Amino acid sequence: MRIGLFATCLGDTLFPDAVKATAVLLARLGHEVVFPPEQTCCGQMHVNTGYQREPVPLVRNFAEQFGDPSLDAVVMPSGSCAGSVRHQHEIVAARYGDAALRARVAAVKAKTYELSELLVDVLGVTDVGAYFPHRVTYHPTCHSLRMLRVGDKPLRLLRAVEAIDLAELPEADTCCGFGGTFALKNAGTSAAMLRDKTDAVRSTGADVCTAGDSSCLMHIGGGLSRIEAGTRTLHLAQILASTRTAPHPLPQPEATR
Amino acid sequence: MSSPTGGGTFLGLPAVPSRPPYGTGNLRGDRAFPEAAREELGNDQLRRNLAKATRTIRGKRLAVTAELPDWEQLREAGAAIKTDTMNRLPELLEQLERKVTEHGGTVHWARDGVEANEIVTRLVQESGSDEVIKVKSMATQEIGLNEHLESRGITAHETDLAELIVQLAGDRPSHILVPAIHRNREEIRDIFRAGIPGVDPGLDAVPAHLAAAARAHLRKKFMTVPVAVSGANFGIAETGTLSVVESEGNGRMCLTLPRTLITVMGIEKVLPRYRDLEVFLQLLPRSSTGERMNPYTSMWTGVTPGDGPQEFHLVLLDNGRTAALADRIGREALNCIRCSACLNVCPVYERTGGHSYGSTYPGPIGAVLTPQLAGMDAAKNDPNSSLPYASSLCGACFDACPVKIDIPSLLVELRHQHTERSGTTAEKLVMRAAAAVMRRPALFTAAQRVTAAPGRLVAGRDEVVSRLPPPFDGWTDSRDLPAPPRQTFRSWLASEEGAATLREAAEEGRRDREGRAAGREDDDEEAR
Ligand code: SF4
């Protein structure tokens, strides 16, 4: 399958390892990974903060970059960006775009997937041949859970990982408090939510907290780092890309725990 | 009432004819949400009570909604009936008026809270009483009826236990359904000791004793006060029937004992048909208290000679509802049946409590409904402008809502209306600049490059950023940020290393698959 990879602006700039892992995983599964080089950002931050005129060029650029009919599917290692493409681009296009943009947006939307959806629904795999001998807890991010309805797909993928020790996260479906600019505009409330999330993560005794979205992981990881919890954050793709021949090393030494 | 269809606004810009007026009353706080929340976040007692109470109600609700095989269809039906209602609200309201009048009631139309308060005051004065007993009602709280009556020398007695606690404490309710959710038993004992005339000074904090003290107090009022004021959960256009659902039975006392009954109902509470109750009397109790059925469902149609109140007045309250209706997208908020499920699942509400919202309507629906009813003044610092931002957009409210109001989308819509109306702000300039960079891939890559180096510098050797200047200090107050990596994804991909890594991964995968296929053949071989 020819799969267009959207790195997301955050993944491209701050968390390239998650995107690399996505590309490596798909290549290993025998698919052609295409990276349209002019891609930038889906405009989610703009729309969620109340701006819909400003991101029109971003929506247009995304549709142009990934509209290529030779791409069978478009994937991104982010539930919230996939949510933006699938739910917000058409709102922006309906309001401030033209008919051509609306048509393009609809076409791209139909083949856009978050990573676990692509793997389970489109490619039909749950066992991706991964190996990850560590204790892991999974946080289902709000947008993948309630906007995309990925359900237990990420967990099914994780359960199939060899040697993994999966610990259930208490109150898993509660928001970590990120919410994009919410974390800045309502920093105190966001921090209170984060504290409960990091407490829950710590209670699992996991080495790694994983999720399908680098932005939420940045938030949870930022909190864990501040309280020196010793639990690291890794994107789901990084666990799935880890194999016996190329295992993912844990980023921090055990000594800091 | 102004025409709800005339002011078709799409972009939040006033269309012709001009937008219907906004509502008045308790629909605007005195501080922006983040400021109010800061104070409440520091209140540990509040947070503990809220966490405990919302968690309990959440569990009960999940249990009783999961047991119905057609729960999702019920939600669909509820949403459809409400949407249909809003689409033909004027005709349904006129039908309701006709039916109520036919059955001996009198209908009054109130454009806003001020008018509604005046109407009720006049009606009470005409009855000759200087006291009223009250059924728990959001609408009368919204318009500040009690305070208004007080200013005219009329005492209103709340009869719902939690409302009574709030009233005696001189407090404001913090939850639609559990107004005293922010108080614990000991606090309630103290409030009763100080507020109920003639109460046993040795009253303790045992719930049954507290309830008994309230009961003795309220009984006297039920038996002597000749006028009651209520709200309504539903008003049936087809029959002119009004309905109140409650748990305690104190509402039933108010609705049946006095000579005069005055009901203040928001115009969005109308339902087309009697049989629509079938849907809502299942949705409401299960979503709100987590009960299969609420203990008391009262219904009355006009006046029945010799039975119950002999004078019935229905005050139909607009107070910004027509303004909300004129908003093609935002009008969905009017479908709300005030079950409070969205409050109980909201992680923001759970931590900040209801008072932070500054309105009769707190929580996720309050963050939508309050600005819809009372507007967001484009002048900066209108506390209502901060409400649509009081959400992480986690979507738990949408999942819980029995009439499937897409609250996160409405919040995003209101944020858009707000930015459209607020001219050129610093934030807008930043957003524009960000979009201008991101729309041009070459600029975007350049920006990635120039921010990475200073970012790495700030982070230092441990590769962690732990202090940032405003407006980003809110982040670093309690979270670190990783240093930008040496290489972006796109430069890695363009590098020899990137290309080689992907080639190797593809080859490894091929070998694996071939190995597995060979293994299968061997197995097959053996099987044969
Ligand atoms: S918005 Fe929905 S969940 Fe919230 S109070 Fe209204 S009906 Fe209940």
From TrEMBL, chain A:
It holds the Pfam family CCG. Residues 4-85, 136-220 form the Cysteine-rich domain. The lineage of its organism: Bacteria, Bacillati, Actinomycetota, Actinomycetes, Kitasatosporales. It comes from the Bacteria. InterPro entries: Cys_rich_dom. This is (Fe-S)-binding protein.
Automatic annotation (TrEMBL), chain B:
Keywords: 4Fe-4S, Coiled coil, Electron transport, Iron, Iron-sulfur, Metal-binding, Repeat, Transport. Pfam families: Fer4_8, LUD_dom, LutB_C. InterPro entries: 4Fe4S_Fe-S-bd, 4Fe4S_Fe_S_CS, FTHF_cligase-like_sf, Helical_ferredxn, LUD_dom, LutB/LldF, LutB_C, NagB/RpiA_transferase-like. Residues 36-63 form a coiled coil. PROSITE patterns: 4FE4S_FER_1. PANTHER family: LACTATE UTILIZATION PROTEIN B. This is Lactate utilization protein B.
